[in-house]
Specification:
The complex is a heterodimer of chains A (214) and B (136).
Chain A (H helix, E strand, L loop, with lengths): L6 H16 L1 E2 L3 E6 L3 E3 L4 H15 L1 E5 L6 E6 L6 E9 L4 E11 L6 H13 L23 E5 L2 E5 L4 E4 L3 E8 L2 E5 L3 E6 L5 E4 L3 E4 L2
Antiparallel strand pairs in A: 1-11, 2-7, 3-7, 4-5, 5-6, 6-7, 8-9, 8-15, 9-10, 10-11, 11-12, 12-13, 13-14, 14-15
Helix pairs in contact in A: 2-3
Chain B lengths: L1 H16 L8 E12 L4 H15 L1 E5 L6 E5 L10 E10 L2 E12 L6 H12 L2 H4 L1 E3 L1
Antiparallel strand pairs in B: 1-5, 1-6, 2-3, 3-4, 4-5
Classes of the chains: A alpha+beta (214), B alpha+beta (136).
């Protein structure tokens, strides 16, 4: 019996094989923690809500109460990535209120841990001094001519290239890089060739024009 | 040879169509329901919190002995990375307690929403029928 070649099915199979071979989800995880719980013997749930909103907005964005009077406040951020979030519950007592705090960040994309986020929000809520949360820092190494390690941006993408020849995109897709002399190949949604500049700071090719942070 | 041809054709088709890229991964975090038990010991809340978190996620733990603050994460992938997490806060009020749920998931990695995750934990925690707990 002769085998029949089903072209539509073969096309779908090849499509899936190509996707699996070239696109892999980035390794990241949810880092979640319960923060400090405050119990106040004075004040109302509304007082708590006002302070919760202020504390959340100080380090995240768009703090909102799930429904008016619920005392359940949440916020997320930063605005361009949404790699962190926090929830505060204000519970009114006969005298005063209790407030709980829970924080979550996407690791390692977030520059700080959930515990650091919760600690900072708690300090703000309590009126204690706060320190700024971590901000991006330059890579310790310069623009190497022997590798592509570092953070690259341009052509509408931001790519983190690792020492293990990995390429991690901000959209959760990973790929790989290869450098031979000044000829670079970036495998990220297909293969893209580019030339590394003499100062190691720029990659120029048909598809990508990238600048390295260094 | 035929396979390479299909791959080439597919690549050209995708390039020509401007196929959308996967959505950016982000955190989806929600405040779940709040439960009130008017006549129950805080230990009951703690036991339920641990049991519910263990039933739905993994590695349930109390942030500190007696704090009533429970958290768990899961499920972990082959590299040990968890794509979701939840926290349960137990706090004594009067002769009973208040329990709050908070859930977070990573999207689009996780198919389930944070809201649905909290719903499963609420169900596992118990309700009026088996514990005298009213959820709001």
């Amino acid at each position: 019996m002769a085998l029949r070649f089903d072209r539509p099915k073969a096309f779908v199979a090849v499509f899936l094989a190509c996707v699996v071979a070239t696109v892999a989800a980035a390794h990241s995880s949810v880092d979640m923690t319960t923060g400090i719980r405050f119990v106040r013997s004075t004040g109302t749930q509304a007082d708590c809500g006002a302070k919760a909103k202020d504390a959340l907005n100080a380090f995240l964005q768009d703090a909102q109460e799930s429904s008016p009077g619920s005392g359940e406040w949440s916020a997320s951020g930063p605005a361009d990535k949404l790699t962190g979030a926090a929830v505060m519950h204000c519970i009114g007592l006969d005298k005063g209120y209790v407030v709980t705090l829970t924080c979550a960040v996407q690791s390692p994309q977030s520059l700080y841990a959930a515990a650091a986020l919760c600690q900072t929000i708690a300090n703000r809520f309590a009126g204690r001094p706060t320190l700024p949360l971590a901000t991006p820092t330059p890579l310790p190494s310069g623009c190497s001519l022997t590798n592509l390690v570092g953070d690259w941006s341009g052509s509408g993408v931001t790519l983190h290239m690792t020492v293990e020849n990995g390429v991690l995109g901000g959209d959760g897709v990973s790929g790989s890089w290869y450098l031979s002399g000044t000829a670079a190949t970036i495998t990220y949604y297909g293969d893209h060739t580019a030339t590394l500049s003499a100062d190691g700071k720029h990659l120029d090719g048909r598809d990508y024009h990238l600048t390295r942070k260094c | 040879m035929m396979m390479r041809g299909y791959c080439l054709a597919l690549a050209l088709a995708l390039a020509a169509s401007g196929a959308p890229r996967p959505a950016q991964a982000m955190i989806d975090m929600v405040s779940g329901a709040r439960g009130v038990a008017k006549n129950a010991a805080l230990a009951d809340c703690n036991a339920r919190a641990k049991s519910a978190l263990t039933a739905v996620l993994t590695n349930a733990y109390e942030a500190g002995d007696g704090t009533g603050q429970w958290a768990a994460s899961g499920p972990a992938d082959a590299n040990g990375n968890a794509s979701s997490g939840a926290a349960v806060h137990c706090f004594p009020v009067g002769k009973g307690y208040v329990v709050t749920l908070t859930c977070a998931i990573q999207i689009p990695t996780n198919a389930e929403s944070a809201h649905d995750l909290c719903g499963r934990i609420e169900t596992a925690f118990g309700s009026d029928k088996n514990g005298g707990i009213a959820w709001h």
